[in-house]
Amino acid sequence: MAALSSLRVAVPQLDSRRTLPCSHFGGAGCEKAFFRCQSSKLLLGAGCVAGEKAPRVAGGGNVRAAVSASKAVTEKPNSGSKSDKADLLVTKDEGLELYEDMVLGRSFEDMCAQMYYRGKMFGFVHLYNGQEAVSTGFIKLLKQTDFVTSTYRDHVHALSKGVPARQVMAELFGKSTGCCRGQGGSMHMFSAEHGLLGGFAFIGEGIPVAVGAAFTSKYKREVLKEEGDMPVSIAFFGDGTANNGQFFECLNMAQLWKLPVIFVVENNLWAIGMSHYRSTSDPEIWKKGPAFGMASAHVDGMDVLKVREVAKEAVERARRGDGPTLIECETYRFRGHSLADPDELRAPAEKAHYAARDPIVALKKYLLDNEIATEAELKSIEKKIDEVVEDAVEFADASPLPGRSQLLENVFADPKGFGIGPDGRYRCEDPGFTAGTAQV
Amino acid sequence: MFEALREGLSEEMERDPKVCVIGEDVGDYGGSYKVTKGFSEKFGSWRVLDTPIAENSFTGMAIGSAMTGLRPVVEGMNMGFLLLAYNQIANNCGMLHYTSGGQFTIPIVIRGPGGVGRQLGAEHSQRLESYFQSVPGLQMVACSTPYNAKGLMKAAIRCENPVILYEHVLLYNLKEKIPDEEYVCCLEEAEMVRPGTEITILTYSRMRYHVTQAAKTLVDRGYDPEIIDIRSLKPFDMYTIGESVRKTHRVLIVEECMRTGGIGASLRSAIMESFWDELDGPIGCLSSQDVPTPYSGPLEELTVVQPHQIVTAVENLCGKK
User: Fold this and answer.
1) Contact B16, B71 (CB under 8 A)
2) Which of B46, B99, B101 is opposite residue A222, by nearest beta carbon?
3) Are A359 and A421 in a shared domain?
4) Per UniProt, what is one GO molecular function of this protein (chain A) (predicted)?
5) Residue A11 has pLDDT above 70, yes or no
6) CATH number, position A214
7) Hey, what CATH topology would domain B1-168 get?
8) Rg of chain B, C-alpha, whole Å
9) Are A212 and B64 an interchain contact pair (Cβ–Cβ within 8 Å)?
10) Contact status of B212 with chain A (Cβ, < 8 Å)
């Protein structure tokens, strides 16, 4: 066990620009299955085998989508101080968008911690610090009509998907102006407008919901003959969830029906205090996709550009109707599991290792080194985000708490569900009803 | 009854292309009790989805698709199997409309055969009404005749709330002439089975037939029971029930549910709370025994309420004649 866990820490420091470290095996030559990568110029380097489909299994026809490909790509030799524009992984606009989204995620979560300790926010609050590259890398590729499900660590997924910071903060403060009217809280962020299907407290239970949204997408195509881009769904969840039955059941169904869903495992190595290696017989989660015939990948989740490349392929696959993808992102949470977690079990060396791979710092370096953005532009983004977060707090502070009348309002979509009272009228016809004065 | 359910479901699927069926063996096999027989050919395999055996996940999938615009009808091959979907039914089905602040509706119907059958063994003879009863956000109805089966199926599908429709394994072969014209039953209303003056007998599902059978004996002996099939297990139709209690002043509940925490237990306390002054005596409640349904015939018979027990209970509540 000690040997295995030390592998995690002993990741070589590679240039974040172009290389794809295989963090499990220390860098060189691992025979890992990888999906076929369209952007071969960017991700395949020396020593890579271009992706090929595995031969058809006799008698069946279950083509294994997982293919052999790159592992540790050797560093591209420096051809000068600047890279060619054509080689850059993002345009300026894209780079700034990614930067802003990650800084928003980080600043928002930092503010949550402050507000919690000041008694403005309550209960269980799970912060996303350190994992921003995954949320930004995937969600910034999505449209408003695409869907996302998450777990209790959902604030940043909500923000990346476009839910205004004000609404998220107000929700956390329990105010009626929150995205869920204060009824959901930290672990239940929802937004119909932005395609955020939740925020789920029990891990695993959001994955079928994402699969269901994908089923709707496909149904609308097949049955209702709707045209246009097929909306895709992404389910975000952690390493702990990958041992849960619903994960496996959903991998099966999604691949069986080729639903436009992407399963994103944010493997941050810890499920509260349970190390991934202590709970998982085979810790390589991405390997479980091919068991269902599903295209799978493992990616460095601390590098937003790598995540984005992998995500692009997966989103395109889903949208053109070729089915789901399982992507394991190696990532890390800089804080404890929740604000109540003393975080005593994780080794300082491990934390330091990942702190040195801060995704925001890495992107900043990339943007500056390649002269995609200037220091001043990035600073102005940071300042803007500070203002957005401050404004969110002010808005949340000033917003009202829900009144008594809100208590019963959303129990049923159709309040006739409260039934018929002794006087023969539906209970909901009683004006005082939702304030809980009418008997239920 | 299975044909009535089939008709109701088929009519709703024709009426609204967003209605679909999700469950095990609903497609090619036609459903374990043939409710969806012929549907695959008629509607295609996307609308009648044969699932792998993964209740929690396919129920969750149905919830996700309901949130995004479809109107799925989930079939539990036996209602007991839905225990595996309890996570999704309680947490997501019941709660999501509330925790999302009203943003998402979940117009889902969960249905299937349940109740005590003929020596099917404990796990296939479960009475799940009480298990789901407390989940906020769910409506529950139990059908008992071909007429109300079709009507409740249609109503449940049209309802914006998640509805659990309890069917009973032993009632599928009931025959009845039902109207040709379209009709829909009201989900929240109870059904008057036999008007009377002396005692209100509240029942639902299969026990309705044990009650009507007992009623023959009771009428012979000079009693005049009023029999109401409550149909809506949650919420209770307190108007129909209340009008009856005001008339008869005596109540007997006859149910197949377990005694502990059952529908009868809730109903009893609701009646006491609202109609205490109308009651001439304690509310009687006959429930099935709190045992896992035994396989052996005589023991199984002793598990559920039998007509002679109903007769005795009425005699005790009303006085011997």
Assistant:
1) yes
2) B46
3) no
4) pyruvate dehydrogenase (acetyl-transferring) activity
5) no
6) 3.40.50.970
7) Rossmann fold (3.40.50)
8) 20
9) yes
10) no
Check: CB of residue A232 under 8 Å from CB of residue A269: no
Q: Where are the domains of chain B?
A: 1-168, 191-318
CA–CA distance, A65 with B132 (Å, rounded to integer):
42
pLDDT above 90 as % of chain A: 75
Same domain, yes or no, for A429 and A289?
no
Same topology for domains B1-168 and B191-318, yes or no? yes
Chain B (136-195) residues lying within 8 Å, Cβ to Cβ, of chain A: 136-137, 139, 159-161, 187-189
Q: Show residues of chain B in contact with A198, CB under 8 Å.
A: 96, 99-100
- Tell how far CA B301 is from the center of its chain: 21
**Sign for the pseudo-dihedral over CA of A194, A199, A200, A205:** positive
Q: B191-318: which CATH topology?
A: Rossmann fold (3.40.50)
Residue with tokens 């509940």: B253
Provide the β-strand partners of residue B284: B252
Q: List Cβ neighbours of B55 (8 Å cut-off, separation of 6 or more).
A: B76, B81, B82, B84, B85
pLDDT at A62: 30
Cα–Cα nearest to A335, from A361, A354, A359, A357 = A354
pTM, rounded to two decimals: 0.89
Mean pLDDT in consecutive groups of 10 residues from the start of chain B, 321 residues? 96 98 95 94 96 97 98 96 95 95 97 95 93 94 97 98 97 96 97 98 98 98 98 97 98 96 95 96 96 95 97 96 83
pLDDT range class, residue A45, cuts 50, 70, 90: very low
Q: Contact B161/A423, CB-based, under 8 Å?
A: no
Q: Across the interface, do A215 and B101 touch by the CB < 8 Å criterion?
A: no
Nearest to A18 by CA among A42, A34, A48: A42
Has residue A69 been placed in a domain? no
b/e for B102-132, b at 16 or more Cβ within 10 A? bbbbbbbbbbbbbbbbeebeeebbbbbbbbb
A391 and A414 inside one domain: no
Same-domain status, A238 and A366: yes
ipTM of the complex: 0.95
The answer for A 142-201 residues in CB contact with B (under 8 A) is 147, 149, 178-185, 188, 190-192, 197-201
Q: How many residues does chain B have?
A: 321
Tally of structural domains, chain A: 2
Q: In this structure, are residues B237 and B189 in contact, taking their beta carbons and an 8 Å threshold?
A: yes
B71, B98, B184: best mutation site toward chain A, by most A Cβ within 10 Å? B98
The answer to whether the Cβ–Cβ distance between A220 and B69 falls below 8 Å is: yes
Peptide bond before B235: cis, by omega within 30 degrees of 0?
yes
Q: Which residues of B touch A220 (CB under 8 A)?
A: 69
User: Are both A235 and A364 inside the same structural domain?
Assistant: yes
